[in-house]
Amino acid sequence: MSFFDNLANTIELLLPKEIAIIVLSMLPYFELKGAIPLGISLGMSYRESFIYSLIGSFLPSPIIIFVVTSLLNNLKSNPSYGRFLEKYKKRVRNKKDLVKNLGYLGLFIFVAIPLPGTGVWTGSFLASIFKMEKKKSMLVIFLGNLCAGLIITFLSIGIHKMI
Predict the structure, then answer these.
(1) Cα–Cα distance between 158 and 163 in angstroms, integer?
(2) Of 37, 52, 58, 92, which has the most beta carbons under 10 Å away?
(3) Distances (CA, A) of 40 to 23, 34, 91, 108, 161
(4) Residue 152 pLDDT grade (very low, low, confident, very high; cuts 50, 70, 90)
(5) What does pTM read for this prediction?
């Protein structure tokens, strides 16, 4: 039994699958890259899995862009949180060149590439770090996330048909 099958069985016992996919797709690193294949493992259609994952994975973006960034700036003065935040910011800054050099196009590409460490969470933090216009950043992040979701869905369809 695969990891996704075990996770799917556990989720089916705890939550309705639609809610589970929305919640899991909101998690950093997991996002829709993990939620779409998991939804398919739960027996959802490709379309349902894509839609619920897209909704859930985008929900953190406005929160990060409008709330979390200013909250994190206030926590910098706390020594415990300050060290953690600096490590995280350093990790995010290591991925900044694409966004810094290409602006909104770079942000789109960064979010659209479905690899670990790219996606809505890091893209939203990058938009905040570079003080990009909030509404435009959210639109670009949504479109990049849509593109990543389509890539993952098509890959999942192909892999599923091969099995």
Answers:
(1) 9
(2) 52
(3) 15, 10, 32, 26, 12
(4) very high
(5) 0.81
User: Any idea which residue has 């690899």 for tokens?
Assistant: 115
Query: What is the rounded average pLDDT for all residues in the chain?
Result: 84
- Euclidean distance between CA atoms 157 and 24, whole angstroms: 20
Provide the token pair at 72: 């994190």
